[in-house]
Amino acid sequence: MDSPENKLAASSARLALTARPRRNRKSEWARRLVRETRLSADDLIWPLFLLDGAGRCEPIASMPGVYRYSIDTALEAIEEAASLGVPAVALFPNTDPALRDPHGSAALDPENLVCLACCAIKRAVPGIGVITDVALDPYTSHGHDGLLVGDEIVNDETVAVLAAQAVNQARAGADIIAPSDMMDGRIGAIRAALDAEGFESVQIMSYAAKYASAFYGPFRDAIGTNKTLRGDKRTYQMDPANSDEALREVALDLEQGADMVMVKPGMPYLDIVRRVVDAFHAPTFAYQVSGEYSMIEAAVANGWLDGERAMMESLTAFKRAGAAGVLTYYAPRAAALLRRG
Ligand code: PBG
C-alpha cells in the first residue's frame, strides 16, 4: 500500500497534454497505420561475388554468410533471389591472379567472368536485372580502379578503358552499367560509347558520391585485392569529411547522363543520401557496404545483436533517408523475411 511506487502514483498530477504521441504507438495495428516508410523486396539489389570453375560456393571469412560463386551455383542463388522478388543483382568478380596485369586487360575480354555470368544469367533468369561494375580493380595487379603511371592514377587514359569495359559488358547483356571508379568525366564518356554501339537503353547507375572508406575492407578480401592494393584510393574516392562536394559530384554525373546515382558507403553516410535526394529528386541508391555488413554479423556472432532486427532496421533506415533502394548483401535474406511477413 505504502510502497514508494504507490506514493508516487498518488501524488503525480495528470499532465494536461493535448498531444500524446504515444497514442499512435499503443499497439502493432496502430503503429502499422501511421508507418511512414516501408521496406519491400523491390528495394533490394544483391551484390554477388563470382569465381572461376564449377560447383563452387566458397565462404568469405570476413563476411560470414556471403559466398563467392562459380557461374553455375550463382545461377541457382540468383534464381532463388528472383523468386523472392529481388529486382536486380550486381556482379563482382574474383579474377584469377594470373589474369591480372598492370593495365587491367581482362576487363576488356569478352569472355571474362563477369561477361560469361551476364550471358548465363540473362538466359537462365531473364526476369532479373543485371548490374555490372565498371572499374579496373578486379583486373589490375596493383588493385587500383584505374591505370597507374608512376604513382598517379591517370584520369583520361583510364576513362577511355572504362568506356570500352562498359561496352564489353553491354555486349554481354548487362542491363545497368555501374561505374564505381570515381574518375572525372567517365559518365559522359561511357554514355557516348554505349550510344555509339547502339546500347541507348542500357542504364547507368553511377557511384556518384563514393568515399575513400575503411568499410570496404571485407569486399577487397572477397575480390582478392586486399593484399595487392598499392597505397590507397584517396586521390579519386572522396574525403569522408565532405558533403557539399557530394552534391557537385552528383550534379556532374546527372548532367553527363546518369540515370540513377549512388551514395557509398551507406549507413555512416545517410546525411549525404538525404541531401542528394532533396537536392536532385533523382533515383538515389545507397550501398550498405561489406564493412557495414561484417560489423553487424560480427556483433551477431558474439550474441550482442539480434541479427534479423539489426538487418531490417538498417535497411529501413536507408528508405527513411530517402533512398530508392539499397545494394545489400542481405538482399536474399531480407527478401525471404519480408515474404514471411
Ligand atoms: C571498387 C569497388 C569497391 C566496392 C565496390 N566497388 C571497393 C573499393 O573501392 O575498393 C566496395 C563494396 C563493398 O565494400 O561492399 N571498384
UniProtKB/TrEMBL annotation:
Reactions catalysed according to its record: 2 5-aminolevulinate = porphobilinogen + 2 H2O + H(+)
Keywords assigned by UniProt, alphabetized: Heme biosynthesis, Lyase, Magnesium, Metal-binding, Porphyrin biosynthesis
EC number: 4.2.1.24
Catalytic EC class: lyase
Listed pathway(s): Porphyrin-containing compound metabolism; protoporphyrin-IX biosynthesis; coproporphyrinogen-III from 5-aminolevulinate: step 1/4
GO CC, alphabetical: cytosol
Domain of life: Bacteria
Single GO term (MF): porphobilinogen synthase activity
Pfam family, one: ALAD
Catalytic residue list: 210 (schiff-base intermediate with substrate), 264 (schiff-base intermediate with substrate)
GO biological process entries: protoporphyrinogen IX biosynthetic process
Binding residues for Mg(2+): 249
Family the entry assigns: Belongs to the ALAD family.
Subunit structure: Homooctamer.
Name of the protein described by the UniProt record: Delta-aminolevulinic acid dehydratase
Organism annotation: Methylosinus sporium
Lineage of origin: Bacteria, Pseudomonadati, Pseudomonadota, Alphaproteobacteria, Hyphomicrobiales
Gene name of the record: hemB
